[in-house]
Amino acid sequence: MKFKILKALDVAGLQVFDPVVRLICGENPPEQFRKILLFIGIPIITFLIFIGIWTYLAPRHTTKAGEVPTPGVVKNAADGIWVFHVRENQKAEDFLLEGPAREKALAGVQARIAELTPLASAARTKLGELETASKSQIDQQVGPLQEKYNALRKQTRADEKAREEALIAQADSLPIGDAKARDAFLAKVSEHEVKSGTEKQALKDFKSTIDAAYADKFPEMESVRIQYNAYEEELQYLSKRLDYLTEGNQSVKISEGQSELVDLQSAFLTAEGGKATLKAAEKVLKQEESIARIAESSYSRPWTFPRQIVRSVACVFVGFFIGSAIAIPLGVLCGISRVFMAALTPLIALFKPVSPIVWLPIVFIIVGGFISDPETAFVHPAFLSSAITVALCSLWPTLVNTALGVASVEKDHINVARVLRLGFFSRLFKIVLPSALPLIFAGLRISLGVGWMVLIAAELLCSSEGIGKFVWDMFNNGSSQTFAQMFVVVFVVGVIGLLLDRIMIVLQRSVSFDGAPTAI
Amino acid sequence: MSFLEMENVSVGFGLEGFRTEVLRDASLSVEENEFIAVIGFSGSGKSTLVSMLTGLLRPDKGVIKLKGKEITRPGPHLGIVFQNYSLLPWLSVYGNIELAAKKVFPEYSKAQRKEHIERYIEMVSLTPARDKKPGELSGGMRQRVSLARTLCMQPEVLIMDEPLSALDALTRANLQDELVRIWEEDKRTVVMITNDVDEAVLLADRIVPLTMGPAATLAESFPVTLPRPRDRTSLNTNPEFKKLRNEIIHFMTAMNKEAKMLRVDRGLSMPDVKPFDFTAA
Ligand SMILES: Nc1ncnc2c1ncn2[C@@H]1O[C@H](COP(=O)(O)OP(=O)(O)OP(=O)(O)O)[C@@H](O)[C@H]1O
Ligand SMILES: [Mg+2]
């Protein structure tokens, strides 16, 4: 049992947790503690240091979208994303509920509303009180300052006017053509201007201290406001739910429609006269149609971030499979035939360095040519374009590694094939491919990593629903809230990339027969 | 005409101009069901000889014939046991042997094939390691797998390239007995390469020395007339065995000396220089 776990950890490249398992099994605890400290403790400490530096540096840089978010803010943003996702799912579920389940959910929602409403109004009163209190306090503080400021401004203006008048008087008596006297006057004017400038600056400074005093709110008020906003938000959400559980609910709509239909049908039965009968018949048909439409409809859920993540992962795998399906056969052919390799080399060399940013628009246009109507198509063209771009950018490592693996099959193994007189295909599938498999998988692993990186850029560019689009939307939103959500994306992308890599490591190791160690 | 026949074969490696001839005018004829041992020093061209006998390498000059037909390409009837085992590392012991059995006996049913394979695994006493990968086996075990794989093809000629050289003395003795047992069990023509004179004398009907390379050739053979079964313990005191062994060892060492002399003659003449002592100045 223990060794099975240890082996699994080893295959997954998670040897780090080896001492933990051993410790649980009670194997040489001091040694295991030392190892845990070394290989788990130190990474954790490094991470904490990173968080610390981040917390320290973030508020020191203010951008157009507000302060750079601290880890705490980012955490809140992540929670917000999750809450949004859960609520949207709930709404979609509510829409489809019927019968007793709907009533039960409705009761729950109403109870929660009843519970929240007084709390929210209490918070609102509290907030109002605090606001007036803070306003009066600020007025008290700022009032004298403001008066002083007003006086100062008046004084400055008067001074300036007086100086100006004095200068005018002096200019009046200036002899004409006397350069020296005029130079002296010029100096005086300049002196006057400098003086007015400094006075104005002093006024401005004073004003900004007053503004700062205004902005200086009660810290208590801020927390109450956050609380109040949270209540309000939830109430809003609950009222939406209420709607989807009552009037907006599918089953409710249908039953309403059906009762209407019954009326219409009876009206049709008793209708007299050609024109009226025709009209009634049309009405019945129309109503039937609309009921069918409602029955088919579903809640139009927005693309929440978790759903975008799922779609991105799906997209990267589609691209990765397309890429591999091209790269592996081509690589095998390259490895087998020198001629084929020579033929493909210029193409590989030419296309390998092309960036996804270049591929994407080209692919997008080509794919768009095949799919005329994006809404009814089997796959969304933006999704397909992103996948193909991923494929185009990520197939190279697999291609090159496959060619290398196939070309460098050991001569001894080829000799075995010769002695057995294996045909082309059994030689390929029994000797060449198995021996190239570890290298092929090493290539696939690199490819998947490249693909994941490329995908985000591709989605961003062609606004295919996914992580890339989320980033782009958040960037365009430009508020401090969305700024923090972009930081969440960094971690999500990193973690998923890590997981993909781990999966590939496990696959790679399970096909490697030479016990090749994994890189981190 | 003999069963396996090699006439004035020459072969070399390398490009024109830099060509080194490994074998020159080597001739050998092996009778059906004869056990031949070829002995030679390392690097003298034994493996090259094996490659040619099994058709993996075509000679530059001369022909090699099996039952009067020229050997032009390798095949399962020319069973080779490679010096470095050449097992496929991604297949288990069973899988490695199965690959050969499937190809050579496609007409076997599943059960028949399984029985066939297991018989040969049993023959080299590897049944407990049946599902292990070559990477998990010791050198000797791999050697035995390689042997079993070749035997299961039931080749007309069995050509073994130093099949026991990687083994320790005890295992080696064991496997030698095993080889004799297998050979006696189902007789066939065997060419075994070895670098061990005792082993050659113990196993073979005839011993053919390979002279020193480059341009090695096969010298006059020593027939081994000791009666079978030969018992290794009593053999050590057998005067005939001792005599034959000494003869061969003499022949080989003399050849070695001769080759060394030749090499010294061809050696570069060194310039007559002495180190200058700078510290004395
Ligand atoms: N593919 C090759 N290309 C060039 N030279 C080769 C090649 N194969 C063998 N040789 C040369 O031929 C000579 C004989 O090699 P061979 O492998 O037959 O020796 P051997 O007698 O089997 O040695 P050992 O007992 O160490 O296995 C060596 O000098 C080697 O350098
Ligand atoms: Mg050799």
UniProtKB/TrEMBL annotation, chain A:
<dbReference type="InterPro" id="IPR000515">
    <property type="entry name" value="MetI-like"/>
</dbReference>
<feature type="domain" description="ABC transmembrane type-1">
    <location>
        <begin position="309"/>
        <end position="504"/>
    </location>
</feature>
<dbReference type="GO" id="GO:0005886">
    <property type="term" value="C:plasma membrane"/>
</dbReference>
<keyword id="KW-0813">Transport</keyword>
<dbReference type="GO" id="GO:0055085">
    <property type="term" value="P:transmembrane transport"/>
</dbReference>
<keyword id="KW-1133">Transmembrane helix</keyword>
<feature type="transmembrane region" description="Helical">
    <location>
        <begin position="348"/>
        <end position="371"/>
    </location>
</feature>
<feature type="transmembrane region" description="Helical">
    <location>
        <begin position="383"/>
        <end position="407"/>
    </location>
</feature>
<feature type="transmembrane region" description="Helical">
    <location>
        <begin position="428"/>
        <end position="455"/>
    </location>
</feature>
<keyword id="KW-0472">Membrane</keyword>
<dbReference type="InterPro" id="IPR035906">
    <property type="entry name" value="MetI-like_sf"/>
</dbReference>
<comment type="similarity">
    <text>Belongs to the binding-protein-dependent transport system permease family.</text>
</comment>
<feature type="transmembrane region" description="Helical">
    <location>
        <begin position="482"/>
        <end position="500"/>
    </location>
</feature>
<feature type="transmembrane region" description="Helical">
    <location>
        <begin position="36"/>
        <end position="57"/>
    </location>
</feature>
<dbReference type="Pfam" id="PF00528">
    <property type="entry name" value="BPD_transp_1"/>
</dbReference>
<feature type="transmembrane region" description="Helical">
    <location>
        <begin position="316"/>
        <end position="336"/>
    </location>
</feature>
<keyword id="KW-1003">Cell membrane</keyword>
<protein>
    <recommendedName>
        <fullName>ABC transmembrane type-1 domain-containing protein</fullName>
    </recommendedName>
</protein>
<keyword id="KW-0812">Transmembrane</keyword>
UniProtKB/TrEMBL annotation, chain B:
<keyword id="KW-0067">ATP-binding</keyword>
<dbReference type="GO" id="GO:0016887">
    <property type="term" value="F:ATP hydrolysis activity"/>
</dbReference>
<dbReference type="InterPro" id="IPR050166">
    <property type="entry name" value="ABC_transporter_ATP-bind"/>
</dbReference>
<keyword id="KW-0813">Transport</keyword>
<dbReference type="GO" id="GO:0005886">
    <property type="term" value="C:plasma membrane"/>
</dbReference>
<dbReference type="GO" id="GO:0015112">
    <property type="term" value="F:nitrate transmembrane transporter activity"/>
</dbReference>
<dbReference type="InterPro" id="IPR005890">
    <property type="entry name" value="NO3_transporter_ATP-bd-like"/>
</dbReference>
<dbReference type="GO" id="GO:0005524">
    <property type="term" value="F:ATP binding"/>
</dbReference>
<keyword id="KW-0547">Nucleotide-binding</keyword>
<dbReference type="InterPro" id="IPR003593">
    <property type="entry name" value="AAA+_ATPase"/>
</dbReference>
<dbReference type="InterPro" id="IPR027417">
    <property type="entry name" value="P-loop_NTPase"/>
</dbReference>
<dbReference type="InterPro" id="IPR017871">
    <property type="entry name" value="ABC_transporter-like_CS"/>
</dbReference>
<protein>
    <submittedName>
        <fullName>Nitrate ABC transporter ATP-binding protein</fullName>
    </submittedName>
</protein>
<keyword id="KW-0472">Membrane</keyword>
<dbReference type="InterPro" id="IPR003439">
    <property type="entry name" value="ABC_transporter-like_ATP-bd"/>
</dbReference>
<feature type="domain" description="ABC transporter">
    <location>
        <begin position="4"/>
        <end position="237"/>
    </location>
</feature>
<dbReference type="Pfam" id="PF00005">
    <property type="entry name" value="ABC_tran"/>
</dbReference>
<keyword id="KW-1003">Cell membrane</keyword>
